[in-house]
Amino acid sequence: MTRFVPPAKGRARRFLKFSLGFWRGDTRRRAWLLSAGVVCFLLANLGAALAVNRWHKYFFDALERKDLATIWFSVGLIIGLAILSAAMAAGLLHLRMRLQIRWREWLAESLFARWLSQRRFYQLSIVGGDAENPEARMSDDARLGVELLVDFSLGVLNAVLAAVSFIGVLWFIGGGLEIGGFYVPGYLVIACIIYSAFTSGTMYLLGAPLVRRVEEKAAGEAQLRYELTRVKDSAETIALIGGDEDERERLNETLRDVVVRWYGVMVQQGRMTWLIGSNMVLAPVIPLLLGAPKYLSGEMSLGSLMQSAAAFVQVMTALNWLADNSMRLADWFAAAQRVAELNDALDRLDATIGKHGRSETIEIRDSPDDCVHLCALHISQHDGKLMIADAELVIQPGEKVLVRGESGSGKSTLIRAIAGLWPWGGGEILIPPKALVSFIPQKPYFPLGTLRDALVYPHAELDLPNERFENVLVRCGLSHLAPRLDETDNWTSVLSGGEQQRVAFARAMLNPPDILILDEPTSALDELSQFKLMEYMRDEMTKTMVIHVGHRPGLEPFHDRQIHLIREEGGPASAYERPINFRDRVLRKLRPKTTGGLGS
């Protein structure tokens, strides 16, 4: 089997390749319009900066001449330039942020679509790998990846344009200088380049380890968030078994690891701050010192000296842009690599289900009739180990099938394959076309919203009268919830495990599916409640095909057939059909219908 494994290096490049899709497809018109607007405002800002640079010569020459009228005119001129510069900066900010928002929206939607399509979000949780905490990667890391990339792109473009523009000013205003009998043209430009090369090179050497430190810090923060969320989601269980102290120690250990990683970032930033701090003091002074001989000799006016000093700082800032932004570059590399890791994990997932060399996968196809067919079905783990071999089965419409087997025989995996969640293996599962398939797991899912929303989930368009909701709730033993239909709450926390399972049954009763797949759906109920609920399901859902994994006693009377999975020693499990025995059939026929609810 050939396995696709993306290389660890080049993840930032793969992030760029994926994220630049914003400029293609349906969003390309908006992307290019926003980009053009940003560039126009960037050029306008550069023009305003050149005008301000020219103002320095105008003002300081007037100051040197003690020309009061020109000085007052210069004051009015700089106010106008300040208003113009502010307007251009505000326009650039508005369009830049709009570009970042739209790009981030597109990237997040693309990641959501890929993660949620074809049940990848579930399959990725099974496969695992190095893409833990996908929620943080699709929210925080994707946001940082886009926002910082826009800032860097504009920063580099502005730095290049500013360097070219102000080098011309510096060359023209500074002129040449004779040193030791040699005439050096554009000496201020040469000095600026040498000084910038020294500071940038030093900054690179000091900041090179920062990318790895920042990536480690981001991974540690994501792990801490994950563990905190895990404790919050399992709060009741942890409290009941007294795991508070253990969880506190684990969280403290993770926090200590995060602190160590932050110290690593701090040390690298501290080294760079030495250079940044000294550069902030020296940068404005160096051009004044270099220009002082020409000013003292009368070759350069005070205005020209100040203009060349301002241009020197602009050129040096442009040439040092990458070095000055090394911390943010490190943040971007860390974020981009984490998003790329998620993409890589999805690629590897696709590789295990037949897209990069694997020859077969479980095929879900349309059935030629109203039955469900398992044809030469074998189910494997994601690493290729065989779990169930050569299962053949036909389930008729309205038939209720009970699946039993020892722990680890693959019962839950079998029904997940039928539900389309488990692609690893081979053979075919034929499902009637347009059949509505519902799944009730052992721990049901509750969306955010009202109880009514939870009961119709995921069919929000379902419009049923209140009487229908109330009747089903009563029959499922949830009459006390009928007045709370339109109440919004965290139902996962409010309802007990048994109530959650009853709500899941009520959800299926409200909108009876063609195929209902159950995975230990009554594990939190007592035997009497289980009996009444299963009887209600059998009597009310006569046309629904039920595939039920259950191990508790008392389930046989409510099913037509039993399928037993038996694992061969050292090999995969095989499926054997076992009929419902005579006693169970008689009990099913003799037991009277239950008209009341399940009770509380």
Helix content: 55-70%
Number of domains: 2
Number of strands: 12
CATH structural architecture of the largest domain: Up-down Bundle
Please, how many helices? Answer: 19
Major β-sheet strand ordering: 8-9-10-6-11-12
**Overall average residue pLDDT:** 81
Low-confidence stretches: 1-8, 355-359, 581-600
What does the model show?
This protein is α/β, with parallel strands linked by helices. The chain folds into 2 domains: 11-352, ABC transporter transmembrane region fold; 363-590, 3-Layer(aba) Sandwich (Rossmann fold), CATH 3.40.50.300. It contains 19 helices and 12 strands. It has helices at 11-19, 28-65, 68-116, 120-127, 134-174, 187-207, 210-233, 235-240, 244-296, 302-319, 321-324, 326-352, 411-418, 451-456, 466-475, 491-494, 497-510, 527-540, 582-590; strands at 177-179, 182-184, 363-366, 372-380, 386-395, 400-405, 425-431, 437-440, 515-519, 545-549, 561-567, 573-579. Strands 8-9-10-6-11-12 form a 6-stranded mixed beta sheet, with helices on both faces. It has a 4-stranded mixed beta sheet with strand order 3-7-4-5, covered by helices on one side. The protein has a two-stranded antiparallel ribbon with strand order 1-2. α5 (134-174) runs antiparallel to α10 and α6 (187-207) runs antiparallel to α9. The longest helix has 53 residues, at 244-296. The chain is elongated and about 110 Å long. The protein starts with 10 loop residues before the first helix and ends in a 10-residue tail after the last helix. The model is unreliable at 1-8, 355-359 and 581-600 (pLDDT under 50).
